[in-house]
Design brief:
Radius of gyration: 24 Å
CATH superfamily of the largest domain: Zn peptidases
GO molecular function, one term: peptidase activity
Strand order of the largest sheet: 1-2-6-3-7-18
Number of domains: 2
Mean pLDDT: 96
Structural class: alpha+beta
Helix content: 25-40%
Largest sheet: 6 strands, mixed
Protein name: Acetylornithine deacetylase succinyl-diaminopimelate desuccinylase-like protein
CATH class of the largest domain: Alpha Beta
Shape: globular
Organism: Levilactobacillus hammesii DSM 16381
Pfam families: M20_dimer (PF07687), Peptidase_M20 (PF01546)
CATH architecture of the largest domain: 3-Layer(aba) Sandwich
Oligomer: single chain
Keywords: Hydrolase, Metal-binding, Protease
Number of strands: 19
Number of helices: 13
Length: about 450
Amino acid sequence: MFMPEKTTDALRTAIDQALQANRPRLAKYLSIETVAAKHLGIEETVSVIEQSFQELGAEVTVWRDIPGSNPFVFATLPAGPNGNADKTLLFYNHYDVQPAEPLDEWESDPFTLTEKNGQYVARGVSDDKGELMVRLSAVKALQNTTGLPCNLKFILEGEEEVGSPHIAPMTKKHGADLAADAVVWETGGKDADENFQVTCGVKGTASFNVTAKSAESDLHSSLAAFVDNAVWRLVQGLATLRGPKGEVLVDGFYDGVKPLTPTEQAAIDQLSFNEAATRQNFGLKLPFISDKPAEALINRSTITINGISGGYEGDGLKTVLPKQARAQLDCRLVPGQDPEHISELVQAQLDKNGFSDLHVSYNQGEPAFRSDLTDTFVQTAVATAHEVYGDAVKLVPNAGGSGPEAPFAETVGAPIVSVGSTWAGSGAHAPNENVRVKDFTQAARYTAQLLQNFGQA
């Protein structure tokens, strides 16, 4: 059902000009090491964002009224004289980024915007600083041509990469400010088959630690003849929670999972999965644990050991029985699963399996969310994608990753879609994070066209 791009020549030219004019700002934005986990670069980044919105004529407010939170930046722009003042679109982005480590795997400085091989390379260029500049460039181009076709709101947080712990209180306190008819989420883009994806939700997540203690001090390893140790207890206990194909062996884990609607199942059935490209992009060495990876990514819950530590791992020899060990785990969840309850079920399962000496401590979590795929705005987003990207468009019920969409959905009560400029090789969170320049430009055109279609709907 190829539909030719409707973007006018004047608007396309204005978008190209806005992207070029914004390149120094993009470089400055990316140059700041805004790592929430290290409490770095927050205020400097907020200042750059404020100035960026002010130069568009936006009304900007920095919310510092959520205790313990990094600042939220809120900006509004009214519809132009020919726009629809009865329609409001809210954009969500985040300004924090992942740490750049391991630094020795970067081919260029991670906080210097580098253009090579048709790509922009820097930490945050795909997740998610670059996406904001795509959107602001689209806004500037519309202002310089047809005018804004609807009211716009932007909300930016600075803690997404540490789990968005203050989003829920922020949305409750500022629900009236956030009111909108639809929400466009932080990022998105193309899959390994170059299909542009319109993604309508996220998986949930539950993060927790599991600890083991077997003695008051490390012991000589010769005592292993009759003394157990914390590391063995931990790995043996964790091994009882998951089957060989990734199935979660925790009683009650899948209780309450909402079945897919016929529309959601149909959307999953039309998704493609490029195994060869996926293996190459990530350098995968092991067989897949699902024979339906596209469906598993969307609707399969998981339990994952993120890291494990204990004992001695340094140079030379130190033959000890470690007294304690610790692992961090997460579960990716689907609608109907409660994050904190999941951690309670894991503790109960360890107890049942004979590992009551292992202790589960809950860190934080986010529930899953899916928009109604039949919603008018979702369909507008898909139709617009066909106008810009042709037939290479897929409707995706939810991403495999997580994010704080549920609090927005509860407070704003509007559909949420994720769209953007990334591609399967963008490497978000990895060294040499990148976007392709052509995708960057195309995403700006899509954003402008989506705003026009939304305003006219």
